[in-house]
């Protein structure tokens, strides 16, 4: 037996079952779900740092989408918030790096 204790994608139980194995699955309450989403975010960020692949980046975005929806916000509204901030403060297109500010 391998113990994982982590949030998984919705189709993973069926994939495990189809492989001939049996998984123990729990459905989380909202409070525990929020905690495990944050843990999953850290896990996916670590994997992206290690692998630097678009696949890992897609996993990271999937977790971000889950967090957005859990907070009761639509992806469209979240994207509007992102674009409003980009309009006010800019993006990262120019690759600017702040070294210091004289006071």
Automatic annotation (TrEMBL):
<protein>
    <submittedName>
        <fullName>Nucleoside triphosphate pyrophosphohydrolase</fullName>
    </submittedName>
</protein>
<dbReference type="InterPro" id="IPR038735">
    <property type="entry name" value="MSMEG_1276-like_NTP-PPase_dom"/>
</dbReference>
